[in-house]
Amino acid sequence: MPIKYIHKIYLNIKIQHGLIGGRILLEGPPLCDEIIYTKGVWIPSINDLLSWLEENHCKFTISFTGTGYKVNVTDSHGVAFTSKGTTPEFALFNVIKKILMKYGGNLGSKEYIVVEAEFIDRKDL
Questions:
Q1: Which long-range contacts (CB under 8 A, 24 or more apart) does 78-82 make?
Q2: Max Cα distance, the chain (Å)
Q3: pLDDT tens column, 16-43
Q4: Residue 74: pLDDT over 70
Q5: Strand 59-64 to 69-74 pairing
Q6: Among 82, 96, 101, 118, which one is least packed by beta carbons within 10 Å?
Q7: Of 54, 41, 23, 44, whose CA–CA distance to 89 is shortest?
Q8: Rounded distance between C-alpha atoms, residue 62 and residue 89, angstroms
Q9: For residues 40 and 15, is the Cβ–Cβ distance under 8 A?
Q10: Given this structure, which CATH class describes domain 45-106?
Q11: What's the mean pLDDT when you consider all of the chain?
Q12: Is 114 exposed, middle or buried (0-12, 13-18, 19+ CB in 10 A)?
C-alpha cells in the first residue's frame, strides 16, 4: 500500500493574539501586552513544560520510541503517569494534563525545608 503525503495544509486560525512560551510574572512589568494574556492564547514551549514538572517536584524521563516520544513521570506523591506524543511538547502536555486531572487541577501546597538561613539586621531593607 503506497504512502500518501499531504503537501499543503491549510489552517483557518481565528486567534488574533497569542504568545509562544514565556511566563507572566507576578511582579514587575508584564512580558507582553495585556490583551495577549487576557484574551489571547498561550502556547507553552518545551522549556515551560519541563519547568512545570521541575517546579512541582516531579521525576521524569523522556524517550524517543522511533515513531514518537514517551514521557514517564512520578509526581511528588509517588504516583506514576505516562504519556505518548508525536513531539516532545505533545507528550509533555498530555502527561501534565493527566496529572492535573488526577488532582482536580490543584496539586496542593508545596512544602519547603530551610536548610540554612541568616537573619539580616538592617533597617534600610
A1: none
A2: 78
A3: 555 455 554 445 555 566 766 677 666 7
A4: yes
A5: antiparallel
A6: 118
A7: 44
A8: 11
A9: yes
A10: alpha beta
A11: 75
A12: exposed
Determine how β-strand 80-85 pairs with β-strand 69-74: antiparallel
Residues of the chain with CATH 3.30.160.20: 45-106
Only one residue has cell 515551560, namely 48
Q: What is the DSSP letter of 38?
A: H
The beta-carbon contacts of 63-66 under 8 Å, at least 24 apart in sequence, are none
- Three-class SS state of 43: strand
Q: Which amino acid is at 116?
A: E
Long-range contacts of 51-59 (CB under 8 A, 24+ apart): 52/96, 53/92, 53/96, 56/99, 56/107, 56/110, 57/110, 58/99
